Amino acid sequence: MTRVAVLGATGAVGQRFIQLLSEHPTFEIAALTASAESAGSPYHEAAKWRVDTPIPDAVADVDVVETTPAAVPDDVDLIFSSLPSSVAERVESDFCEAGYVVSSNSSNERAADDVPLVIPEVNPDHLDLIDVQRDERGWDGALVKNPNCSTITMVPTLAALDAFGLERVHVSTLQAVSGAGYSGVTSMEILDNVIPYIGGEEEKMETESRKLLGEFDGSRVQWHDVEVSASCNRVATLDGHLENVWAELGDDPTVADVYDAFDDAATQDLPSAPDPLIESFDEPDRPQPRLDRFLGDGMAVAAGGVQETPAGVQYNTLAHNTLRGAAGASVLNGELLDREGWL
User: Which pTM was predicted?
Assistant: First the structure.
């Protein structure tokens, strides 16, 4: 078994990590960290458990430790980070310097030239950037990021369309309230309402997509030259980000061609990887969050409603934002790191 630790284990994404790792076939939880105020308390007291399955017995009585390398056992092979970015930018590098490999969901350093930003089914070769990172930073460990939850929803479909000459993308998102964290949006703000702004979200979609779709040349990632424009909106659904995508293409594929490309999207032979990666729907009113967010155990991307436009195609896409879009994405990256011998 590969021994793992979870940084920020008491938060919303940290709890998803616990849920996913508690019955993982190859990962074993060895340490849980949180703030200094929670350190020393058993996990069931430190975490206000809000996940839709019971708190796992194996971790309920485990004492939470401080988020420092000294508090984590030396024999931990892999660290998952769900820290707030303001904290992660201060402490993740400490763990990497101490020799730990960190698979992080936090947004800091996603755009850094020497930090792999990875979706295993889309750009697994970007992990080779770790060698560059270690040379430049002098680390024995490594830092790997998964992208933003709204970016993860869209990019697998864009990767499938890239064979048709991906030139320009416009996307409008309808993002679930869980993406803001438990206290992120109050009921008085979101009930009977849509909030047409999510701070920083549009920039993340517009930049992270290009890095993910880029080519690693042996020393850096050459970002894809596709132009991405995003409008991000918070809606009153609990889980599942739904996105309306307009893709302008150099070629002129038919609707059938697009569905074939979605159906042929490659997956990975990893424990958490869905098969198929993209589940497609012919119906014009699918996918829908309540019906389709748990496809592939919450790790698949759904797509449907494909229509031809004068410049390319329009379609809808959906993924579970805290499973595929957050904790599950980091776990999948961890599985890839383990399989490829980076631990």
Answer: 0.97
